[in-house]
Amino acid sequence: MGGAASPMQRLTVMIGPRDHVHHHSLAIELMARARRARLAGATLLEAVEGQGRSGVLHRQHLFSDGTPLSVVIVETPANLARFVEQNRDLLDDALVVLDDVRAFRA
User: Fold this and answer.
1) What gap in Å lies between CA 8 and CA 52, rounded to an integer?
2) I want to staple 102 with a disulfide (CB 3.0 to 4.6 A). Which of 5, 15, 23, 44 is the partner?
3) pTM of the predicted structure, to 2 decimals
């Protein structure tokens, strides 16, 4: 391990590719807001396969945009709490997971 591990939190927002806000992608809007909030970093991940509450299996296909998306942010607990509070309008219908993690640079 390179440096000392710091207590952080990981926010994962799980959404669908067809989730939109103001006529554009919810995932892209979350990424833009994370950037404007000057969070340490955010990553948008596209699943190869996923199953949600409906029980329907979503798979990645060559000409399909039906796979689940996740926005993952690792940041201090205070900064994430502020981000979540300021962005409740986007998070109300999404599955949001908040984990305590320890982060370090290897």
Assistant:
1) 27
2) 5
3) 0.80
Confidence of residue 40 (pLDDT cuts 50, 70, 90): confident
The pLDDT mean for the chain works out to 85
- Name the residue ranges covered by the structural domains of the chain: 6-103
With cut-offs at 50, 70 and 90, classify the pLDDT of residue 36.
very high
Q: 75 vs 41, 48, 80, 86, CA distance in Å?
A: 8, 26, 6, 15
* Secondary structure element (H or E) that encloses residue 96, with its range: strand 95-103
Distance (Å) of CA 97 to CA 16, 23, 74, 76, 88: 15, 25, 12, 15, 14
Residue type, 85: E
Exposure of 71 in the CB half-sphere (CA atoms within 13 A): 26
Residue pair 27/71 in contact by the 8 Å Cβ criterion? yes
Domain 6-103 -> CATH class: alpha beta
- Number of H helices and number of E strands within the chain? 3, 8
